[in-house]
Automatic annotation (TrEMBL):
The keyword Protease does not apply. This is Uncharacterized protein. The chain crosses the membrane at residues 49-72, 93-113, 133-154, 166-189, 220-247, 259-284, 290-314. Keywords: Membrane, Transmembrane, Transmembrane helix.
C-alpha cells in the first residue's frame, strides 16, 4: 500500500478508473481526468442503487410489521382473548426495531449516499469516526440484537408461561451487551495497533480521486469480523438446537414448514455473511468485485430479517386476528403448541401398559 499521508486514516488509496489503464496514462498534465472518473462513480452508483433497493424493501416490510404490532396491541385492549397472545408485543417490537435501525445504518454507510448527504458537512476525522460508529452498531448491536431477539421468540414458544415483558427486554439487552462492548474496544481502542497490519484494525480508508478530492470509505476491520464469526458460530448451534426442540413438539405440518424456512434463512445468511466478509479483504471498496461481494452479503442478511419478520410477526398476528385469538399459548407462527405439549407430558407420565 502507498505510504501514509498524515491523514486520520491508516492508509490511503487512489482511485483507478479501469484495470486496463496504467498509472502512467495520467502523467500527462493536459489529459482531462474527468473523462475517466465518472465511470468509477457510475459503477459504484449501480451497486449502491441495488443495495438501497434491497434495504428499502426491508424498511417497508419493517413498517408493515410495526403496523401489525400496534394494530394487535389496540385490538387486544378491547378483546380479552387476544391479550395472552399479545403479552410479548414489546419483544416483537424490539425485533422490528433492530431490523429497521440496521437497514438505516447500512444506507448511511453507502459511499454515494455519504458523498451527497453527509461528507460535505463533515471533516475527514468526523467521517472516520462515522465509519467506526457504523461497525460498532452493525456488528456489535443491531444485527446481534436482531438474532438474539429472534432466538428468544423461538425459545419462548415452548415455555409453559410467557416471561415478564421487562424481564424479556432485560434478558435480550444483557446478551447483546458483551458484543457491543467487545466491538467498541476493538474499534476505538485497537490492541497492538502499531505492531499489526493496518487492515486488521482499520475501519475505513482514504481515497483520493484524480481531482485531488478526498473521501473516507468504510471497511470491515479484521478483528471485528473475527469476533462476529465466533458469535455467528455459537449462535447457529444454539438456534439449530432451539428449532429442533420446537419441531419435537409440533405436530402441525404448516408450522413445521415455517420453522424449517426460518432455520434455513438463518443458516444460509450467516455462513454467506462470513464468506463475504472474508472475501471483502481481497479488494478495495471502489473495485467492482468488492461491490458484488457486499451486495450479496446485504441480500442474504435482509432476506433473513425479512423471513424472520414475516414468520414471527406478520403471519402469527394475521392468524390470531383471523382465528379470533385463543386463550391458549401459541407458537410465534400462530398455531397452538399447548395441546401437543400436554399430550407429550401425558404420554411421558403414563405407565407402560396403560
Amino acid at each position: 500500500m502507498p505510504p501514509d499521508l498524515q491523514t486520520p486514516e491508516p492508509y490511503v488509496i487512489s482511485l483507478s478508473p479501469s484495470p486496463s489503464l496504467s498509472p502512467s496514462t495520467f502523467e500527462d498534465p493536459y489529459m482531462d481526468a474527468n473523462f475517466f472518473f465518472p465511470s468509477v462513480l457510475v459503477a459504484r452508483s449501480g451497486f449502491d442503487l441495488a443495495t438501497v433497493a434491497i434495504i428499502a424493501a426491508l424498511l417497508l416490510l419493517s413498517v408493515v410489521s410495526l403496523s401489525f404490532i400496534f394494530y394487535l396491541r389496540i385490538k387486544s385492549r378491547r378483546m380479552q382473548h387476544l391479550q395472552n397472545f399479545n403479552s410479548l408485543w414489546t419483544i416483537r417490537l424490539l425485533l422490528v426495531t433492530f431490523a429497521f435501525l440496521w437497514a438505516v445504518n447500512e444506507i448511511i454507510r453507502l459511499p454515494n449516499v455519504r458523498r451527497k448527504y453527509l461528507d460535505p458537512f463533515l471533516t475527514l476525522n468526523q467521517q472516520t469516526n462515522l465509519c467506526k460508529f457504523h461497525v460498532v452498531l452493525s456488528f456489535g448491536f443491531y444485527e446481534p440484537g436482531f438474532l438474539i431477539t429472534l432466538l428468544f421468540l423461538v425459545n419462548v414458544s415452548i415455555k409453559k408461561k410467557n416471561p415478564c415483558r421487562m424481564w424479556a427486554l432485560l434478558c435480550v439487552c444483557m446478551v447483546c451487551s458483551p458484543m457491543t462492548l467487545i466491538q467498541t474496544i476493538l474499534v476505538y481502542f485497537s490492541p497492538l495497533e502499531t505492531q499489526l497490519p493496518k487492515f486488521v484494525h482499520g475501519s475505513s480508508i482514504l481515497t483520493i480521486d484524480f481531482q485531488g478530492n478526498k473521501t473516507v470509505l468504510c471497511t470491515y476491520p479484521f478483528f471485528s469480523c473475527v469476533v462476529f464469526w465466533v458469535f455467528a458460530i455459537v449462535y447457529a448451534l444454539a438456534f439449530l438446537f432451539s428449532c429442533w426442540r420446537v419441531l419435537d413438539f409440533v405436530i402441525n405440518k404448516s408450522i413445521r414448514v415455517r420453522i424449517n424456512m426460518l432455520a434455513a434463512a438463518v443458516m444460509v445468511a450467516l455462513p454467506m455473511q462470513i464468506l463475504c466478509l472474508g472475501l471483502s479483504w481481497l479488494w478495495i471498496p471502489e473495485d467492482d468485485a468488492y461491490g458484488w461481494v457486499v451486495l450479496v452479503m446485504f441480500f442474504c442478511i435482509t432476506s433473513c430479517m425479512a423471513v424472520g419478520e414475516v414468520i414471527l410477526i406478520i403471519k402469527p398476528i394475521t392468524d390470531a386476528l383471523v382465528a379470533g385469538g385463543d386463550c391458549c399459548r401459541r407458537f410465534p407462527g400462530g398455531f397452538r403448541l399447548s395441546r401437543s405439549v400436554e399430550q407429550r407430558e401425558r404420554l411421558d407420565n403414563q405407565e407402560p401398559g396403560q
